[in-house]
Every structure is written in C-alpha cells, then in structure tokens.
Amino acid sequence: MKKIIGLLIILLLLPAAAWAYETFRCNNRVIQTGDLKSKVLECCGEPDSKEDVGEKTYWEANQKIKVPVSEWIYVKYQYDIVITFEASRVVKIENIYK
Q: How deeply is 81 buried, as exposed, middle or buried, from its count of CB atoms within 10 A (0-12, 13-18, 19+)?
C-alpha cells in the first residue's frame, strides 16, 4: 500500500516538473514552448548570442519538410537560458547552471 501511495505522489508531481522546463519568466512575462521568436524578442530583448545549429526534417503528407533550428542564449548571473527554436517557434527551454 505504501508503494502505491508513493508511486501516486511521484506521478502527480511529474507534470509540475515538466511544466517548469517548458516555461521561462522574462521581465515579468512568461515565455513557453510554442511561442514565436517575435514574442521572445519583445519580452526579453536581444539575446546575448544566437546560433544556427542546423535543420530538422519532418515528413508531412508524404512530403519532406526541412525547418531551420537555432538557439538563443540569455546570460544570467548564475545560469544561462538556452531557447531552441524550430523555424520560428520555441521547442525547448533549458537552464544551464554555471
């Protein structure tokens, strides 16, 4: 019974942990996966660095679609925020601790 309760608690906490990595607060505004580059730029300003890291290939309706992948890096005091874009949408937000 204790194992079941422990497992339920872990399963309830997982969505909260995942949510934390899909958002980033910038100047009292929230950036999240799915947002456009223009919103990130408006909320956070110019990043400290930008890098084109390649492209990703998708198949849609039997067509090969390639989209550019880029990373914007915002340098903070104790960590860096790395925002990964596919085309112009946020797909990943990472905190890199120094």
A: buried
pLDDT one-digit tens code per residue, 49-80: 999 999 999 888 889 889 999 999 999 888 88
75: tokens are: 């340098």
Stated pTM of the model: 0.74
Which residues have C-beta within 8 Å of that of residue 53, sequence separation ≥ 6?
69, 70, 71, 84
Amino acid at 68: P
The number of C-alpha atoms within 13 Å of 38 and in the hemisphere containing its C-beta is: 0
Sorted by sequence, the CB contacts under 8 Å of residue 75 that are 6+ apart come out as 48
Cα angle for residues 86, 27, 91 (degrees, 5° grid): 15
pLDDT(86) > 70: yes
